[in-house]
Every structure is written in C-alpha cells, then in structure tokens.
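Example record used in the benchmark description.
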Amino acid sequence: MTAFSALFVALVALTLIMQQWLGRRQISHVLSHRNSVPAAFTRNISLESHQKAADYSIAKTRLGLKESAASAAVLLLLTLGGGLQLIDSTWHAWVSGHAMLTGILVIATAVLVTSLVDLPFDYYKTFTIDERFGFNKMTPTMFFQDLLKNALVGLVMGLPLLLAALWLMQSSGSYWWLWLWCVWAVFNLLVLAIYPTLIAPMFNKFSPLTDAALKTRIEALLAKCGFKSQGLFVMDGSRRTSHGNAYFTGFGANKRVVFFDTLLERLDGDEIEAVLAHELGHFKRRHVIKRIVMMFAVSFAGLALLGWLKETDWFYSGLGVATPSDHMALLLLLLTSPVLTFLLRPLFAAYARSNEFEADEYAARHSSARHLVEALVKLYRDNASTLTPDPLHSAFYDSHPPASIRVAHLERLAAA
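Model output (structure tokens):
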C-alpha cells in the first residue's frame, strides 16, 4: 500500500466514523426530547405530532447510517479493491482501440454500480419509512418509471458532456481542465434555463394557478418585489408524497413560481403569501446567482486539481488503478470528492442557513413574520420535521436553521 493509499483509507475511515457518530448523536438527541414539545410550539403542535416527527427522523437517520456504511464499502471495493481496474480491463479488451468509447462504457458501468447500491435504500425509504408514516403516494410502477426517466435524462444530457470532456482531455493540451470548466459552466446554465419547461414536466404536471383571489394577491406581491416570471403554477406533488413545498425555478426570463398542491391545501392566503415572500427573498438577495458562482468556483478548483493529479502516477496507483487514462482520472475525482470534501460540509451548510435567515428577513419586511411562523409551524407538523435536531448533526447536514432557532428569529423580527 502506498502512502497515498493509506491517506485515502484514513480519509474514508474518518468520514465513515464521523457519519456514524453524528447519526448516533442525532438519534440520541431526538429520543431524549421525544416526550416533550418545545415550549415555542406547544400551542400548535401536539405531543403525538411531535413524537411522530421524532420517530420519522430516527428512522431516516438509521437508514442513513446503513447507507453511508454501504457507500464506504463500495468505494473501497471499486478503488483499492480493484473494481475499477477490473471494469476498465474488461471493456478495454472488448472495445480495444476505441479509447473514447472505452471511457464512456467504464464511467457508465461505475455509475450503474453505485446507483444499484443506492437503489435498495431509496426503495426502502419510499415504501417502508415514508409509507409507515403516511407520506408516500407512489406506486412501485411510478417509482421505477421515475428511475427510468432519470436515467434517460442523465443519458441524453450527460453523454454529450462526457464526450466533450474526454475529447478536451485528449485534444486541448495541458489546460484542458480550463476549457472543460467553461463547457461545464455553460452546461449548468443551460440546464437551469430548460429545467422548468422541458425537464420538470417529465415528472410532474404543472397547471396555472386558478384561484383568482390568491392569484391577484400573489401578483401584487410579485409586482411590489419587482419579480417577473412566466407565471404561477401548481405542481401535482400529491401524486408522489404528502409533503408540501413552494419554490421558484428557472433562470433569466424563464423563471416561474411553483406551489405544491399539498401546500395550497394546508395554508391560508396570508401564510401562502408569507412563504412566497420568503422565496422571493432568495431571488432579491441573489442567492441563486451566488450559489451558482460558488458551484463554479468549487468546480474550477476541482478541475484544476485534477489537471495536476492526472499527470501523476501515484494518483492512479494509490487508488487501485494500474492503467492511467483520461476517463479514469475523471471517474476517480467523481467517486472520491464526497470523501475529500466531507469536512467542508459545515461551511456550506452554514452559508445556506445564512441565506435562509436573509430570506426570512425579506419576508418579514414585505409580508408578515407572524404569518410565516404560522406557515412554518404547519409545515413542520405536516411534514414531520423534527423540532429538536442535534446541533452538531444539523451543522453538517441541514441547509435550513433548526425550527426553534428560525422561529425565534422570526418572532424577534415580528416584535421589531
């Protein structure tokens, strides 16, 4: 085992130990607070609802512990266990002389293997955990249809990107990574632009909002906030789940506001307006653009690093690959990046939570902090979101502030 192999094993072990430790902290913390509703929520959330949320959170966390262990085992088997080298050697023998085709087949096979490992966990969560707690509305047929659609979308959109990447790595010299980063950036902007009208309708039905009074109210808020969109749409989220949500999607002139039908059923007009004001806060504070810039910066650094690693023998041999190649360099980066960046998760999560606070402040100024609190409490209750997450687990995994902290912040805004 090389020094880099030992470092990689240590990072995988550290990541797995951290994931298991954080998960067990979460379970213990939620269990210890299961039998009492936090004081801020006693008027609106019953003990039964609070306990349901605790049990739902614990069930998902326990499944996550198993999934993280399985993912770590598969990663080690593919790398140091020789799995990637076996896949590469097999395809190379079958399509010898066609480097780009070999690369595509090797990457596709590795992606298929990791997807098949994730599949039982996704299925169990949907048809055992979500079913038990009353959230799942999907059938097995719908589940596998979505799986097939996702695979087709990934193939249609991912194959040209992969071909471009392999061609650039072969043909554009030592700065191939910079050209690839440019292609990657354009590709992501294109996906943002076409997602609302071409991709999302493949999975859900989007209908114009027909409630005249609510539409008038929302359009007035949009005008006040200076937000122009293609329209207000209701998504048939209830076909798959009873969870509720709202969001705006798209990029540039292709933006649209989307409400889950389940959300409209649960909230009144004041609460819907407050939720939308929060979403508009993300737009007005340029959170989407800032996240795109951050994503581009991270991908730039990652590809620049790969541009250097690609030329070193120890990078391949240290990860169980005997035959260096362009496609193997890309694949190794994709597989190992979650481990290499795990300890940075609190930084990204903290930034995401700061965006949520800013959006809440915007909603408090342009709508009502109290109505947003009422809406959030209903969503916490109906979505069985735990009110008592472990602070350290939350710091790693939660993009939104814990319920008690967020509500307290909004109540201070309302008082002010």
